[in-house]
Model the fold of this input.
Amino acid sequence: MFGVLIVLCICGVAAAAGPSLRSYLLRSGEQPGYTVTKHSLVSAHTAAAYVRAEFGPLLTRAQQKAAVRRLKKAGFVGAAGEELHGARKRWGASAVVAFNNPRSADQLAKLTYKQAVSLYKVVVTVQGGKLSRFALPGIHPSYGVTVRSKPAADAEVVWVEGDCVLFSAQGLRHGSGLTPRQIATRVTTGAESQRARTNGTCPALAATFTG
Done:
């Protein structure tokens, strides 16, 4: 449906997100060992701002306009993201994209997962290692992937709550000795903590998200 990868890039749009939208991002400690990086919040309250933040110069002007049209048609409401960091140069990210309907949220989640798997297959081909898939216990739909290469290990998971797509990721510089389950433990715990805090719902109220 979207034709291009639409995942909030933690780079570029400095506007403050509405408090309700930001509440769906991970908080410090919810993903064990990770805290929110200060002043890393980025947000997009329009489809155009979202496309600029995500793609910047990667798309031509005509392609950006086409992406904006697709997002508007899909019912885009808003997006926000933050960086996470941990000890030993661990990195992480948390993001939420809101639509006005659950169908678009599910489509974006599937597309995001597909793109992540494709990227990590390239990493494994170049660096060696192992790619594994997982789902969040009791959270459906959810799509997760881990990759273990030398010497790092990464995990990403995307899931749907109501009309919203939520995303979290982590990178471990010294995770090559971990099993896929161990690699996924922190992002799984973070998602479960976030879900418990928000009661597993994310209604896309445009007035709240764009306020």
Remarks:
- The first strand starts at residue 34 and ends at 36.
